[in-house]
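> call design_seq(struct)
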């Protein structure tokens, strides 16, 4: 999400077309999911699961009381991970602490990667804040830290979600959606730490200005107390890799369109913007979704924010509703795990105060749910 603006309710806006379910989305809507954890404190956004079933979540610093921004679930309860000290927000040591983590992802080598926006309260970032940090799950110790230079991640950027292809280069590459600034995709060479931007300002990464979603029966807009409602425009957000690693799927939040781009083009630091853009494909309709995920059978997953549901996109482009329920309110991040389940965070983001004239309408608990799928995660190693 372009979350840098919605807490201040200044220039934010979430755009959209008329509410209308497409004929291509079909299937049963039974409640075939289970609640894995309930969160009674800060609002979570991300979830990931290791090969051994360890579950990690994160809590960005958007205004809630966030004692730790990364946690492991132990006995169903979040515990600061890898420890409390690194989770302590410290403006005097931006690189040495997690400032505001938006996403956590376990890679194909079973390492936990932490994506720190470096931008608590969406106030903007400084060098050392935005970073990608690896934790060895065998030792629970930080083993790698990649800081993003300001020319790649400017102060108004918002690194959102990340996927990994460990076959590329000497140690692999990471692909990150930027939901702030000019939007686009950030590419990171994990061996050297070098990073570069692609698709910045490209139409496929920008919000659809004609888009106005309807959530819980009302148009979803920024509604400041005493002010006029405005559209909330959010660009590149969801991200997923194809099973063979040749395509990167991505989508703006303020859109019902899905796009993909060649990972070969993205991973080439010498490719021009025009050469990368030439590989973009418009894959047509998708429901309004925050995060995306993929499985090893070439299928995509996301949440339908307007219908409190989870969907799957088949390789032939058809969609199927997998689960629907009133408590699946704002599906944020998704993760396909080795236990052949799809995990998802439902965090009621649409009920935050900037969207309701200063009134916080969230009702705890926030949920982590899962449902069985007949596939495992994409492992490019």
């Amino acid at each position: 999400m372009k979350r840098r603006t919605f807490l201040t309710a200044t220039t934010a806006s979430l755009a959209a077309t008329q509410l209308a379910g497409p004929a291509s989305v079909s299937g049963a809507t039974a409640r075939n999911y289970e609640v894995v954890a309930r969160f009674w404190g800060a609002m979570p956004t991300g979830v990931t699961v290791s090969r051994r079933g360890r579950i990690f979540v994160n809590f960005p610093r958007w205004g809630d009381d966030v004692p730790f921004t990364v946690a492991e679930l132990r006995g169903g309860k979040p515990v600061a991970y890898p420890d409390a000290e690194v989770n302590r927000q410290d403006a005097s040591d931006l690189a040495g602490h997690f400032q505001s983590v938006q996403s956590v992802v376990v890679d194909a080598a079973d390492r936990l990667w932490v994506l720190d926006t470096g931008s608590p309260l969406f106030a903007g970032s400084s060098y050392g804040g935005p970073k990608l940090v690896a934790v060895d799950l065998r030792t629970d110790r930080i083993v790698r830290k990649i800081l993003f230079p300001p020319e790649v991640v400017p102060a108004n950027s918002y690194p959102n979600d990340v996927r990994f292809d460990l076959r590329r280069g000497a140690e692999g590459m990471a692909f990150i959606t930027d939901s702030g600034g000019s939007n686009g995709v950030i590419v990171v060479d994990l061996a050297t730490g070098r990073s570069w931007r692609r698709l910045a300002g490209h139409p496929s990464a920008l919000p659809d200005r004609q888009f106005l979603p309807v959530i819980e029966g009302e148009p979803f807009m920024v509604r400041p107390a005493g002010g006029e409602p405005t559209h909330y425009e959010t660009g590149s957000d969801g991200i997923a890799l194809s099973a063979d690693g040749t395509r990167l799927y991505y989508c703006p939040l303020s859109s019902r369109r899905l796009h993909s781009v060649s990972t070969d083009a993205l991973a080439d630091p010498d490719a021009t913007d025009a050469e990368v853009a030439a590989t973009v494909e418009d894959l047509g309709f998708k429901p309004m979704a925050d995060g995306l995920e993929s499985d090893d059978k070439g299928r995509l997953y996301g949440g339908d924010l307007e219908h409190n549901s989870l969907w799957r996109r088949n390789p032939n482009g058809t969609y199927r509703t997998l689960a629907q329920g009133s408590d699946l309110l704002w599906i944020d991040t998704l993760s396909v795990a080795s236990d052949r389940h799809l995990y998802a965070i439902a965090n009621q983001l649409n009920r935050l105060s900037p969207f309701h004239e200063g009134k916080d309408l969230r009702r705890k608990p926030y949920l982590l749910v899962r449902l069985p799928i007949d596939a495992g995660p994409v492992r490019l190693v």
